[in-house]
Amino acid sequence: MKASPLLRAWLARLAKQGVTIRTRHRFTGWGDSKHIRFEIPESTVAFTPDAVLLAMGGASWSRLGSDGEWADLFAAETAPFAPANCGFTPDWSQDFLHRHEGNILHSVGLSFENEKTRGDLTITARGLEGSALYALSARLREAIARDGSATILLDLRPTLPEDAALKRLQAQRPRESLSNRLRKAFALDSTARELLRDATPKDATPHQLTHTLKALPITLTGTDTLDRAISTAGGLRQDALDEHFMIRSRPGVFAAGEMLDWEAPTGGYLLQGCFSTGLAAAKGVLGWLESSVSGIA
Length: 297
Fold this sequence. Notes:
It comes from Gluconobacter japonicus. By secondary structure, the chain is an alpha+beta fold.
């Protein structure tokens, strides 16, 4: 199923199970130890629930409601937010970014500190983004914070061994332009050819060109903005929760999903992590309610 009909079917099933969904409610905290408060367009409302499960997201894509402002209510228990699965800023000129904005480097390889990934990279007005980069985002973000920059190695033809690439290049007519030889030997588009030319000397030998084809250095100087990241690191720290995902400072209040301090390498793992922590926290809620009824809590 596509996302929209799946969501409609999901909501219909929840309604049949007696779930009440109240929209346009913004969580603002507690009135006292038992009351939980929300802002609504007309005023404020408060509830006195037996248990609470919070799933308020991280701090990216605020226009969809996930702005991370809830963290102010748990300041002492929250790690700072940071972008994850995010784009990065290379040390490329604005002219290059402007001319190649929207172009895609298809099926390239990336490596950083002996970790390798494969996928597409898209050039944006701000820099680079794409699945191959997202998988390295945590390590790259930490390296940039520590050292001020991080250099990744780009493999423009990851399925072609370097010795085979050298033979292909040497088989081209030497009188042809370098751009034509690169295009014919490796089927490189204009963006890839310019990157390769800029990363090698003007009088580069075939050995230098093929070596750079397989390990083209790109220096990254920063991440894209937090709000544009697919997901975020940071949030409620693990030591703020017990083994049932209950917030230690708030008995009966549980948390799940991206508001917890963890990050996933891709969107698929992110969704699975949110579903899994939601299920684990829900089981924690049931256990808490049962213990409360029996007088254990």
